[in-house]
Amino acid sequence: MEKSIQTTADYWTKLLICALVLLTTQVHCHFNPKINVTFLDNAVSRGAVCLDGTPAGYHYEKGYGTGADNWLVYLPGGAWCNTKADCVARTKTVGGTSINVTHTWYGGILGANPIVNPDFYNWHRTFIRYCDGASFMADVEAVDPETNLHLRGGRIFRAVVDTLLAKGMKNAKNILLAGNSAGGLATILHCDRFRALVPNASRVKCLSDSGFFLHAYASRHLFEFDL
Ligand SMILES: *[C@@H]1O[C@H](CO)[C@@H](O)[C@H](O)[C@H]1NC(C)=O
Ligand SMILES: *[C@@H]1O[C@H](CO)[C@@H](O)[C@H](O)[C@H]1NC(C)=O
Ligand SMILES: *[C@@H]1O[C@H](CO)[C@@H](O)[C@H](O)[C@H]1NC(C)=O
Fold first, then answer.
1. Are 22 and 45 contained in the same domain?
2. What is the pLDDT of residue 28?
3. Which domain holds residue 14?
4. Count of beta carbons in the 10 Å neighbourhood of residue 97
5. What's the gap in Å between 55 CA and the centre of ligand 2?
6. Same structural domain, 116 and 11
7. Has residue 227 been placed in a domain?
8. What is the mean pLDDT of the chain?
9. How far is CA 87 from the centre of its chain?
């Protein structure tokens, strides 16, 4: 009850601020804000790169108020590529390259509307771009000489998490690692290791939305790369 009163107050406050937009800054005015990409400074030297070798990136919005000590880290979906040809095709899209990537729109649990997203709207909210085609898991040093494919999703995850830790997540009280589909699987697979990276947080939870697949077929294709 107390919380919903607080939330409603936040909503009206925000609406009022937005109504006075000519007199104020536009900070927090958009409920589904457009968030620019940030590419990792050291992405290439750390090998945290997309399938085509371009730098990995993430989107971030700073938390405030009651959310100032809380972090949401989101891993989006986007299926897998299971063969060389499939992965090469993927490098022509944002699922496999960061070329042409500029921004994304935050909605749902990443959104800034306290009525629609009362639990997380003011948390630090990060969206890690999914451009490795394998649920943020691979960590293969060798690059395929024939196709220039890089299999580095695990390094992308780790490099972005290290960046977030340095940005303040190491002092977080509550952290939610969440993801859907291919990102939901990544959430399950990374959950325990992620927890170990934030020993000082009092609560860390992992939320996998549609992330468990019975896909025995895929395991055969892991060997096709033969690296
Ligand atoms: C996002 O990027 C665009 C294009 O580069 C730029 O004009 C804008 O100022 C950026 N917005 C923020 C909040 O940094
Ligand atoms: C990037 O954008 C340019 C201009 O729209 C387009 O020609 C090119 O195919 C795009 N490249 C990728 C990898 O999306
Ligand atoms: C946890 O907190 C202690 C005490 O403030 C600090 O010394 C330590 O570096 C922190 N650990 C991490 C991994 O942030």
1. no
2. 52
3. 1-31
4. 18
5. 16
6. no
7. no
8. 89
9. 21
- Residue 137 domain-assigned? yes
Q: Would you say the CB of residue 99 lies under 6 angstroms from ligand 2?
A: yes
Report residues whose beta carbon is within 6 angstroms of any ligand 3 atom: 170, 199-200
Sign of the C-alpha dihedral, residues 203, 75, 58, 162?
positive
Q: Are 223 and 84 spatial neighbours (Cβ–Cβ below 8 Å)?
A: no
Q: How far apart are the first and last CA of the chain?
A: 57
Is the pLDDT at 128 greater than 70, yes or no? yes
Residues 11 and 89 in one domain: no
Radius of gyration of the chain from its Cα atoms, rounded to whole angstroms = 19
**Residues 89 and 132 both lie in one domain:** yes
Q: What is the pTM of this model?
A: 0.85
Q: For 18-67, how does the pLDDT look when each residue is reduced to its tens digit (9 = 90+)?
A: 666 534 444 455 688 999 999 998 888 999 999 999 999 999 999 999 99
The count of structural domains within the chain is 2
Q: Which of 99, 131, 148 to mutate to test the pocket of ligand 2 (most atoms within 8 A of CB)?
A: 99
What tokens appear for 180 in the block?
């859907």
Q: Are 56 and 50 in contact (CB under 8 A)?
A: yes
d(CA 97, CA 210): 24
Of 164, 170, 194, the residue with max ligand 3 atoms within 8 A of its CB, to mutate for a pocket test, comes to 170
Separation of 136 CA from ligand 2 center, angstroms?
24
